[in-house]
Amino acid sequence: MFIIEKIEAAAAAGKLQPAVISGEKELTYGELWEKSDALSVYLEEVLGEDKTPLVVYGHKDPMMLVCFLACVKSGRAYCPVDMSMPAERVRDIAETVGNRLVLGVEKPENLPEGMQVLSREDMEKAINARLGERFPESKWVKPDDTFYIIFTSGSTGKPKGVQISAQALTRFTDWSETLGGSPEEKRNAVFLNQAPFSFDLSVMDVYTALTTGATLFCLDKETVKDMAKLTEALGRGNINYWVSTPSFADMCLSDKAFNDKLISDLKAFLFCGEKLTKTTAARLMERFPKARIVNTYGPTESTVAVTGTEITKEMLEAEGELPIGYAKAGTEIEIDGESGEIVIVGDTVSKGYYKDSERTVKAFGRKADGRLYYRTGDQGYLKDGMLYYHGRLDLQVKLHGYRIELGDIECNIGNICGISAAAVIPKYQDGKVKHLTAFVVREDKEEFREDTGARLAASREIKAKLKETLPEYMVPKRIVFTDGLPMTGNGKTDRRKLEALV
Ligand code: AMP
Questions:
Q1: Which of 58, 74, 183, 436 could disulfide-link to 177, CB 3.0 to 4.6 Å?
Q2: Is residue 330 part of a domain?
Q3: Is residue 335 located within the same domain as residue 410?
Q4: Ramachandran region of residue 230, left (φ > 0), alpha (ψ -120 to 50) or beta?
Q5: Sheet architecture: strand order including 54-58
Q6: Structural domain of residue 480, as residue ranges?
Q7: Last residue of a domain, one of 382, 410, 430
């Protein structure tokens, strides 16, 4: 069944069942379906034939889901942008997406000239005035149309918009509905949503919940920041399927109360986005002996995840790292013979980066039989069909589950006045990045060298400047001023030498 039809079926089967809960706000399936219909009627009135994708700006509000569905019902892709994104990036993304209208569940600042925001209040008014109107199915996005665009860090300092088609999302959910339990078991179950909607990990909980008739239980950023609030929310949520990065589970594990007394009916942890360590898996098995642990792997460019496996006790006892799973149906994993790069071939691969053919042709292609493929930049190997992850071939890292191109940060530091060079180096622990250090060369390094006070002030200033252009998690924890960056024989920054210093 097609993705929107699956949601329609879930809505028809349980009109009064909550589709999404976020703090005090709740929306039933019936409301989600009807409000999104009404909003799509409005979008059609104001935008007509203009099918340019729409930015949906906000945080964990149920209205975000109304907007997502309204966009795709009206034949337009949506681009979720979380309010934690700095204004300059939001502006950049809105400009690239290019629709003159932005759906602002929260109020974005500083949008490009001429752009209009449909505020939450106006959205409610537009919906209420059209409630009960049905939007024709014939206008929904078609399987090959883009369903959403998610922006992710790009090495040149400009984020890349990954376009995922409705068909790719349909194929992804066909598989994700079976993770950690059958689709039938998921009906009326509760899915945890931790990741902001602008991260593709959230697609795993949002659409697996909405296509199986489950309830999405969202944690907002205020709750996640405060351990007491978080524990209270987790205890209240009746969560059955946990979707998060392993780092988020690590954070929860630091509280002793995080166990099967707090979440007594947890069926499975579904992990994706970064390495799952044996330590994390073992601790979870101890605290939640009845819950399954599923490790999945994949990039945004191939719709969240393409491989998965349940982690067993035997895997924990075996030598080496935990596996990242078997390919889902419709996906084939190839390993490049020379570089060991993981190449994903199949039905959930993106059509490429939005309005960026240059970066698209570098990473994507089509096999002779027509299937799309994506070169991940990840290294890995297969053993009896099981995939193992072996690090990156480039300068992309994961920090607390967030995808970061070190080059993105370096470009942004380089853009700050008075800086002549910069290299950002990750500090690893247990195979995961713990924090980032930026080595920075200033143009006035001679005068600057001896002055500790000035160095401290300058480091603070760089961090503040970076926060204007980069999400907070990308701002390096340490700034080290140096007279020059070490070079390798062929004139590149010697990152190995710098790694020894962090
Ligand atoms: P994103 O596009 O943010 O989902 O990030 C995708 C990247 O995260 C992949 O290319 C991998 O480098 C990394 N990744 C995703 N899942 C896993 C996993 N289970 N184990 C190790 N690395 C992972």
A1: 183
A2: yes
A3: no
A4: alpha
A5: 116-119, 101-104, 54-58, 78-82, 146-152, 160-165, 352-353
A6: 396-499
A7: 382
Query: What distance in angstroms lies between residue 104's CA and the mean position of ligand 1's atoms?
Result: 30
| Ligand 1 closest atom vs CA 304 | 4
CA of 198 relative to ligand 1 center, distance in Å? 16
Predicted local distance difference test score (pLDDT) of residue 452: 80
| Ligand 1 atom with minimal separation from the 342 CA | 10
How do residues 174-187 score in pLDDT, each as one tens digit? 999 999 999 999 99
Determine, yes or no, domain membership for 127. yes
Residue 218 has pLDDT above 80, yes or no: yes
Whether 390 is in a domain gets the answer: no
Q: 377 and 411 share a domain?
A: no
Residues 324 and 433 in one domain: no
- If you measure from the C-alpha of residue 203 to the centroid of ligand 1, how many angstroms do you get, rounded to a whole number? 14
Give the integer Cα–Cα distance in Å for 257 and 288.
Answer: 12
Q: What CATH number did the domain enclosing 495 receive?
A: 3.30.300.30
Q: Output the pLDDT for position 115.
A: 95
Name the residue with the closest Cα to ligand 1, atom 9: 299
Q: How far is the CA of 316 from the centre of ligand 1 (A)?
A: 20
Q: For the whole model, what pTM was predicted?
A: 0.95
The closest residue, in CA terms, to atom 22 on ligand 1 is: 274
pLDDT tens digits for range 357-384: 999 999 999 999 999 999 999 999 999 9
Out of 163, 248, 274, give the residue to mutate to test ligand 1, the one with the largest number of ligand atoms within 8 Å of its CB.
Answer: 274
| Ligand 1 center to 391 CA (angstroms) | 10
CB 200 within 8 A of CB 300: yes
Question: What number of helices (H) and strands (E) belong to the chain?
Answer: 18, 26
Separation of CA 402 and ligand 1 centre (Å): 9
Query: Per-residue pLDDT averaged across 441-446, rounded?
Result: 85
Nearest CA to ligand 1 atom 5: 299
Q: What average pLDDT does range 329-333 have in this prediction?
A: 98
| Secondary structure percentages of the chain, helix, strand, coil, to 5 | 35, 30, 35
- The dihedral built from the CA positions of residue 313, 318, 321 and 324, taken in this order, carries a sign that is negative
Residue 74 Cα to ligand 1 midpoint, Å, equals: 32
**Is 412 in the same domain as 370?**
no
* Ligand 1 pocket residues where CB is under 6 Å: 152, 200, 272-276, 295, 297, 299-300, 324, 376, 378, 389, 392, 398, 403
With a cut of 80, say whether residue 222 has pLDDT above it: yes
Stated as kind and residue range, the H or E segment containing 495 is helix 495-499
In the predicted structure, residue 446 carries a pLDDT above the cut 80? no
